[in-house]
Structure formats: structure tokens, C-alpha cells
Amino acid sequence: MAKKDYTKPKKRLFRKREKQLNRSFAGNSLLFFIMFICGIFMVLPLVMIVNNALKPLDELYQFPPKIFVRNPTLENFSDLFVLMNDSWVPFSRYILNTIIITGGGMVGHVIVASLAAYPLAKHKFPGKNILFSMVVLSMMFSWTVTQIPQYLIISALHINNTYAALILPAWSFGMGLYLMKQFMEQLPDSLMESARLDGAGEWKIFWEIVMPNVKPAWLTLAIFQFQQMWGNTGSLFLRDEELKPLQFSLQQITAGGVARAGAAAAVTFIIAAVPIAFFLICQSNVIETMTTSGMKD
Amino acid sequence: MDTQEMTISQEALDIAKKQALLSYQIKRNKASYFMLAPYFILFFFFTVLPVAISVGLSFTHFNMLEMPTFVGWKNYIKLFLEDDIFMISLKNTLLFAVITGPISYMLCLLFAWIINEFKGKVRAFLTLIFYAPSICGNAYLVWNLILTGDRYGYLNGILLELDIINEAKLWMQTEKYVLPVLIVVQLWLSLGTGFLSFIAGLQTVDKSLYEAAALDGVKNRWQELWYVTLPAMKPQLMFGAVMQITQSFAVADISINLAGNPSVNYAGATVVTHLLDYGSTRFEMGYASAIATVLFLLMVGTNKLVQKVLGRVGE
What we know:
The complex is a heterodimer. Chain A has a single domain, classed as MetI-like fold. Chain A has 13 helices and no strands. Chain A has helices at residues 25-54, 57-60, 75-86, 91-122, 128-138, 147-156, 164-171, 174-185, 189-197, 202-213, 215-230, 246-254, 261-290. In chain A, helix 1 packs antiparallel against helix 13 (261-290), helix 5 packs across helix 8 and helix 9 (189-197) packs antiparallel against helix 10 (202-213). The longest helix of chain A is centred in the middle third of the chain and has 32 residues, at 91-122. Chain B has two domains: 2-57, no CATH class; 85-145 and 173-312, Orthogonal Bundle (MetI-like fold). Chain B has helices at 2-28, 30-57, 74-82, 84-115, 120-135, 142-146, 154-161, 175-189, 193-204, 207-215, 221-232, 234-249, 253-259, 271-281, 285-312; strands spanning 60-61, 69-70. A two-stranded antiparallel ribbon of chain B has the order 1-2. The two termini of chain B are 52 Å apart. Chains A and B meet through helix 1, helix 4, helix 5, helix 6 and helix 7 of A and helix 1, helix 2, helix 4, helix 5 and helix 6 of B.
């Protein structure tokens, strides 16, 4: 018989909680109750999206409407694939376009914004404060304000009806630079100083020391940029059907009316699920980056 | 005379010195400027220049076909004195901003604060649930199913079953329901970047501050929140305010997709829907630019004001 190991702590189903500072049972119950009610309100539409995607057509048009699906099926998704194969432009083309546009927007933005964030965070030079406050100011209004002139400028640059019309403006997204700069500020100066003493130039320091140390911020910039670009149908700048992103064709399917209600439910699910899944993967990195998001006045 | 000459030459010398210093400074920091260049060139073309053009065009008549002609303040005069729909949309936008701005801000803070009481997986899960609506793109269209005006709508179905109403209500076609319903949907969508910033901010508050505060006589969580937590996360509070304010002024898509554009008696019209109406339907670009400029001033003005107020908190 094996000897009992007394050094191991005994496993208990309910570990006794140590009493937390300033927390009362009544307060806990009240707050958790509020949280529960609001949580249901928040999650219910999401639950509906999932359930509708799995409902057969007769359940989608049932009275009284039921939130939860009774006979789950993947019919809606197979209908969607049939519709996709019928489309005039091959569907893989739309997917490729989305990969080029969102991928190009994300990678370019992370590089360009990090490159600008490094001197703003760590160097002293004339004009630094003005440049940074312009970026902060740009976060204070939405892109709708500049939509018309942006269209004129893109036409003037002759990049209308190309991928660049969507990718290039995305690179200069203000919040990305802001978050990256705030995150870089907390890197210890000694890190760069010792590299400088070893004779490394600023470019080398940037690529070999700064960038590897701000990985959580890359992911955060990439994911925020993705959220911005994922919903873009590109219909403002792209005329050619062969250039349009997935989102455009998905919306065409949703606009198909009653007959396509099943496929539309599947589309809604895909539209919601992709960014949520992406966030889920990067969540801890995003939270880490956001700890430095604060504004100092 | 002599002394005057002296001071003048002294001044000239000082200026020369300063210039030498500036050009020297610029030269010395060449690498920094090269690093800044790609971002700020794009930023100039797609943000700074558009704002300037928008302000410029707002004083012209411009239909994209002919060259713009200068009309002075005419667009603004028409906007504020003759355009009744603009007044309705301005009123709606301000209502949105005044209601959803502060409420969504408080909700972000409240939820972040409660979520902070949880640990590990539960915390991550709750964060995801509350944040998910703001990133799910056009999926908020699911509200169309909830709000459908016949018996097949989920809201009508549930209310009919519970005998709260006797007949199906046309939620999005009845003037008095449009704005309140849009506000609810907007609140559902509004726990975005600001919310994440608060969650992150709460995690960084130094634990020893709470112990010290308890010794100083802080008795419950509400006092703790007010005296310790909020002052410690002031930078995040300011960042969150910018996010929520900008968002609450820009409401348009949900109005267009749920209530239609134009909506019933313009009950869901906002400044942005009005802007889109003139910009992309009627091609009156001068007038649309005037609307954009007013919106720009509203957003930036409110943000600056709130920053000032928040900056004073706890000082």
C-alpha cells in the first residue's frame, strides 16, 4: 500500500474563500443580480443568431416565435454554399479579396503605426507634441465626417477601384497609433540605451528590440483594424465585381428576401462569429495592451 | 542708441542661435522623422486634408460635375434657418448623445467593475459576452427579427403571449417607439473599446491602495470605488469618455438599417443620416460638407469639454 502523501493539501469541493476586504453578501447579491439581468439582455440576440442559423425554414417562420431551435440542422449552411457556387464571380474570389484587403490593412497598419509610435514614445524632437495631439484629436470624430473629401482625394490619387482605396486609409487609423505609443512608453529606457551603447542604430533598435517587446500591442492593433475592415462592403470605392470583399456578397445574399431567409441566417452567424472568434484568441493580449490606454492630460 | 543696437543684435543672435538649434535638432533626429513619415503622410492625406477640404467645401455649391462656386455662409444659413429636417436630426443626435453617451459610459464602468470581482475563465467569459455585440458587425440586424411589426416578431410574440399587449405593434413604423428602441439597440452595441480599457484599468489598480484605504476608514465597496478605484484609473476614464462620446454622436447605421432612411416622420433621422442623404443621394456636396463640419465641431467640442471636466475630477 502506497504511503499517503501528507504534504499535499487536501482537495475540497468547495474551497473556503478568504473574506475579501469591504465586500458584503448583500452587496455581492445585488451586483450579481444586476449582472445576471443585463447579461441575459446582452447575450439573447447573440443566442438568437446562433439558433436561427441552425433552424430549418419552417421553424424560422413559426408562430409564436421560439428563440431556441428544436430540430437543429445545417441546411442553412448548405443552402448558403449552393448560393455561393451559383454566384457570378467565383466565391473563392470574394474570399481572396477579403484576405488581401483586411490582411493588407492589418499588416500595413501594424508596421506603419508602430514605426511612428516608437519615436513618439521614446525620442525627443521638435513637433512631437503637435503630431501626437493631432492623432488624439482624430479619435474625437468619426470617419463619416471626412467621407466626402476622402472620396475626392482617393479619386484624385487615381487609386479608385483598386484595393489601395480601402487599404491605404486604414493604415493611418488613429487609435492604433495611440494605443501603440502608450504601450511603448512603458518599455524601460535602459533597454534601448544599452543597445545604443553597443552601437546599434535607431532602425535596428526598432526592429530587434522594440518590436519583439510589444507583441501584445501588435495583436491588439491587428484585431481592432480587423473589426474596422471586416464590415466594409467596399461599395463606395470598388466598382468591379472581381474586387469586392466577402462582406459585399454576403449582404447580397441577405437582401434576397424570404426565400433566402435560411441562408441569410447562416450569413448573419458567419458575420458575427469571425470577429468574435478572433477576439477570443487574442483576448488576453488585448487586455494587456489596454492597461496602458489611459489618457494623460 | 548704443544699448538699443546692442539689444537688437542680441535678439538677432538669439534668434539665429535658436534656428541653428532647431535645424540642428531636426538633423539630429533625422531617423525619428523618417520613421514618422509613412504614417503621417497617410494621416495627412486621409484625415487632416479631408477635414480642411470639408470646411472649405462647406462654403461652396458643389455637385461633383461642375467646379465648386463660393457661396459664403449660405449653406449654414439654410441649414439652421430653413432645413426643418436638419433640426429634427440635430435634436435626435443630441438626444442620442445625451442619453446613450453617459448611460453607456456608466454601464461600461459598472460592468467592468463587477467583472473585475471575478477571476480567470469566468472573467474572460463575461468580458467576451458583454464586448461581443460591439464587434459583431452587421449582425445587429438580428434586432430586425426581434422588432418585426407582425405576430412573427419575437418581441410582439412574447408580449402577446404574456398578454401585455393585445395586438402586434409596428415598432419601427410608429413614431413614438423609434427613438427609444434605437437607443436600446445602441446601448446594446456600445460596450466597446472604452469598456475594455476600463477592465484593463481596474486590473492595474495597486492592491495595497485598498488595504491602506481600509485602515483609513473606507467601509464598503462603494466608498472604495469612489475614493480609491476611480481616482486611480482616471487616464482610462478619460480614454473611455472619448470613445463613448464619439460613438454616441455618430449613430447612423442602426437607424438606417432598423428604422429606414428616411424613417417614419424622420423619427430616427440623425445628423449622419442627413449627411448621407445629401452626400450620397442628392450629391449636394457643399451642403453635405456644411453638415459634416457642424458634426465635426459638435464631436470635438463635446470631447474637449468633457476632457476638461474629467481632468478636474479628484483635484
